Amino acid sequence: MPFETIENTWITLPDGRRLAARLWLPDTGPAAAILEYLPYRKRDGTAPRDETTHTTFAEAGYVCIRVDIAGTGDSEGQFDDEYSEQELHDGEEVIAWIAAQDWCDGHIGMIGISWGGFNGLQLAFRQPPALKAVVSVASTVDRYSDDIHFMGGCLLSDNMNWGGQMFAYLTRPADPDLRADWREDWLTRLQSVPFSAADWLRHQTRDAFWKHGSVCEDWSAIQTPVLAITGWADAYVNAPTALAANLAVPTKAVIGPWEHRYPHISKLDPADFHSEVIGWFDRWLKGQENGAEDLPAYRTYMQEHFNPTAHNSARQGRWIAETTWPSPHVSEQAWHLAQGGFSREPATGTVAVTSPSHVGREGGYFCAGMRIDNELAGDQARDDALSVCFDSAPLQAPLELLGRAKLKFRFSVDRPVAQLVARLCDVSPVGVSQRISYRPLNLCHYRSHETPESLRPGEIYEAEIVLNECAHYLREGHVLRLALSTSYWPIVWPAPHSAEVTMHLQDCTLHLPVREVTHEVQASEPGPAQNYPVLAGEQLRPPSAQSERTVTKNGQVVLETFDDYGKSRDPYHDLIVGSDVRMRYCIHPDDPTTAHFETAWSFSFEREDWQVAISTECRMTCDAQNFYLYRKLRATEGADEIEVLTKEWSETVPRGLL
C-alpha cells in the first residue's frame, strides 16, 4: 500500500513544549495508528531499525509515528529520568494528539522493545482512552526486580554501564535543520544531563521510586490486549509469562531464541516479527476476526544443548506451545540437595559455598544484543569449577523444563552482607556446561526487597531464589547441574567482603518446573523473517568489534571490549553520524573491593560545514563502605574541534547493604 513519509512534524504539548515526530502516512485516509515513543533519536539513532518496521506497517495500512521523548533527539524540554511522570504524562498527551488528527481513526497501538516496551505497558496501565493494544518486546513488569539496575537485591554492574550509555546519549544535539535554537539547547543538555547511575544507585531497595512504572503493582489496571515478546538470549525473560499469567485481558506470550533485538533483525535465528505484530494490531485496532485471541497463551522455543559460545551462533531446539498459562502440563518436582548431588529425601549435614570474585567470566554480557558480538554466555565449565555444584546422575530419560525453578534453602553466613548466585546448567556427556537459567540473591533481602536487614554471622535463616524463566530440553545421558557461588562478576557487583555461605542441607530443595515431554500443542511458531526494507545509507566506516580477556601481573582479571558502530550518511537528510564505545571490567579474585568498571563513548555528527563531537567517560569503583562514581564529558564544534564544554562530576554513594 502506498504511503507518505514525513521526516518531522511537531506535537505541541499543553505547556508549549514541542515533541519531534516522524510519520508514515498510508494513502487510505483515516487509519489506525502505531506509536513508538523513545529517547533514542528518530532522526538517526533508531532510523535504520525504523526503516525495517514502520515502513512495513505503513504498507499494511497503518499510520506509524515515532516520537522523541522530551529533551532527547529533536524534542524540546529537558529529560529527567527513565519512565518519569513527565515522560508518561507526555505520552498520554501524545496519544490524545494522535487520536485527534484527521489521518487517525481514533484507534492507537503502541510498540517498542526495551524502553518502548516498558512505556507501552506503563501507558496502558494509565488507560488513555485511545490506546487499544500493545506489543511489548523485552520489557519488565517490575522495575526493581527485573531491570538493568538490581536483580535479587544485588546491584548489577550494568546500572553504571547503562547510566554511562544514557549519559552519552543525552549529550547529543538536536539537528540544526530542525531546530534553529539547537546550540542553545545543546549547551543546556550538556550542562544539565542527570547523573542517572548515581540517582538509581541511591534507591537500593524496592521503594516508591521503583514501584512507579511497575505494572505488577496492579495487574487489573491494564485493560488493553498485550502481545509480549522476548528471547532467551535477552536479559528480559520474565515479563511475557508474568503478563500471560496475571492479566485479565487477551494476552499472548512469545519467547524465541533471540537476543535484545526485534526478532526479524536478530542474529540468532531471525523470525517473522512483522506478521505477529500486524496480526495482533489487525485484531485489536481494525477489528478483524483473524483468530489472534485464539493463539496459545504461551509459545516458546524449547532450547537444547548446543555447545555454547560467546559468539553469535545458531540455537538448537524446537517451538512448543501451551494453550493456557500457567499450564496444567507443567508440574513441580522437588530435588533435595545432598553432598555433590541430589537425593529423593532430605539430606543431612552442611555445605560451605565461597567463591573467588571473578566467578562469572563465562556469564556473557548482561543484555546480549547491545554489542556487536562476543556477548553470549559460553561454556560454564570454568565457572562451575570455582563454584559448589550439585549434579544429577546422567538422565535415564529426557527432562523438559518450562518455567521458573526455585531454590529453597536454609543458610548461615560469616559476614553481615553476602550474596548467593544460583545457576542451572545442562552438562553434556563430554563436560560442556550450558547455562539454562540463573539468579542472584542479596542474602540481606532473604525476607524482603523493601526492608532488608544486616545478617548476624552464625544465625540460620531461610530464603528462596526464584531463577529466571527457562525452556530447556535435557537429553538422555546429560546431567542437570545446580551451581552455587558467592559472586558472579561482571554481571553482579560483588559484596564488600568475601563471604562463606553455609547451606544447611536438611532444608535445601530445588523445585523444578517439569513439563510432560510427550505433551504437544500446535505451536503456531513464527516463520522465518520476511523480506523487509533496509535504510539505504552510505557507509563511511564499517562496524567492528573486539573483546579481550587478560590477567595482569598482580592477578587482576580484566575484560576489555570495543564496539565501533561505524559511520554512515542518512539518505533522507544527509546527516552523518559515527559512534563507538569502550568498556573495561577488572577485579582481583581475592578482593571484591577491587571491582572496577569504566566505559568511554564517542559520537560525531556532521553535515556540510557543521560538525560536533562528544566524548564521555564513566568510572565506578568501591571500597567496603562506599561506591565511587565519576563521569566526564568533552564537547567540540567545527572541523578544528573547538572546545564547547568540558565538565566532570563525582558522586560517593554509601553501600548500605549492597
TrEMBL record:
Keywords: Hydrolase. GO terms for molecular function: dipeptidyl-peptidase activity. Gene3D superfamilies: alpha-amino acid ester hydrolase ( Helical cap domain), alpha/beta hydrolase, Galactose-binding domain-like. InterPro entries: AB_hydrolase_fold, CocE/Ser_esterase, Galactose-bd-like_sf, Xaa-Pro-like_dom, Xaa-Pro_dipept_C, Xaa-Pro_dipeptidyl-ppase/CocE. Coiled coil: none annotated. Its EC number is 3.1.1.84. Residues 278-534 form the Xaa-Pro dipeptidyl-peptidase C-terminal domain. The keyword Amino-acid biosynthesis does not apply. The keyword Hydrolase applies. It is an enzyme of class 3 (hydrolase). NCBIfam families: CocE_NonD. PANTHER family: COCE_NOND FAMILY, PUTATIVE (AFU_ORTHOLOGUE AFUA_7G00600)-RELATED, PEPTIDASE S9 PROLYL OLIGOPEPTIDASE. This is Cocaine esterase.
